[in-house]
What does this fold into?
Amino acid sequence: MSSSASVRAEAARVLASVVQGRSLDTALRIDPKLTAQQRGLLRTLCFDSVRWYIRLDALLERLLSRPGGKLHPDVRALAIVGLCQLLYTEIPTHAAVAETVNAARALGHPRAAGLINALLRRTLREQASLADQIDRDLTVRTAHPQWFVQQLATDWPDLHRQILDANNERPPFWVRVNRRRIAGARYRQQLEQAGHRIIASLFDDESLCLEQAMDVSELPGFGDGLVSVQDGAAQLAGRLLHPKAGERILDACCAPGGKTGHLLELQPELAELVAVDSSVERLARVEENLRRLELHAKVIAADAGEPTAWWDGVAFEKILLDVPCSATGVIRRHPDIKLLRRPQDIQALAVRQAHLLRASWSMLAPAGRLVYASCSALRAETTDVVAAFLATTADARDTTPEAFQALGFEPAAGIGRRIPAGWGKMDGFYYACLERRR
It folds into this structure.
């Protein structure tokens, strides 16, 4: 059995696992014995098959002689992986067909090889007519669940189609230069000298978007803490909080620590940075990031929404609250959200977000600033949560327009600021900068 067939078989196993409810990050465990080429192929097949699953599954139903017929989950997933290769990769068609057929045997389903072969060859013959049949439905054409498409159309009436298309792009590769170790312009020069093309930048080249993604080990100085990988939208959090020397800052819901590190890079003379998260496992990544960057924070494993269990009662001048959310603004990085998230999840998340906001506000000093951050694309988790809070909190005011103007962005209407996926080559995000009246 060829290694290429084995990679496709493994991609099918991963996809079947995601369809059954596991996250892609959990399901995808790459064997270190694989070559770099094999690792790249496996990741591409897994991510693209998940990204386009809803459309590919609709296509598969059209191809089957008995739509709705029962296929073994692994066989169905392998058919999807095969269709994905034909429609969304540059893999030569003969290789895609032959190795996917061979993968049926590697999966332990040799009798399915003929079916897989027939499905893929029919797709090659009838691709245009099949696409015309299934793409009349926007949810199928863009491979998003119907509930999400409907909600996005309500929340973003003028931009929802662009957001759906942006969600299906491969994510851009943003890096954050550690200003404590190297100037942005100098690091950019190092990248360009190494042959890497920069397609966007912010903040004196401290935030750089590269044309091509790469393994972090290939980034100059990554191991030495010169640079971190972080989307451009996520890099706005620390700058909006605007940390100043001598301040005591809380990073609530801090894992995996990208924003924690950025705050410490932006302001090396903080009195203290307290980083809180309820996940001990994810806090290990926070500690790992801090060690690589040679930075220090007071890391606490606790529920940020229950401060009486861990807070010392001393108010914070600044608080970053990066709430747990549906992550529907970062679907292009986590395409399994399309398959795993359910509409009933949103209200439960909104309740949790409102609780975290009130709990965090109780720890904020007079004249202090709280930045509410969410990578959700939905109003229920962003604008609605903050609007309800402002309506019932007399000493809170929204200063988001001024905060964004200070960073060089044009002001925008509304409570907080919504960033649609794809805007400025960034992920979808939401920020509200709230200040406490004296």
The chain is about 45% helix and 15% strand. The chain has a mean pLDDT of 96. Residues 113-134 form the longest helix (22 residues). Residues 224 and 292 are 6 Å apart (CA to CA).
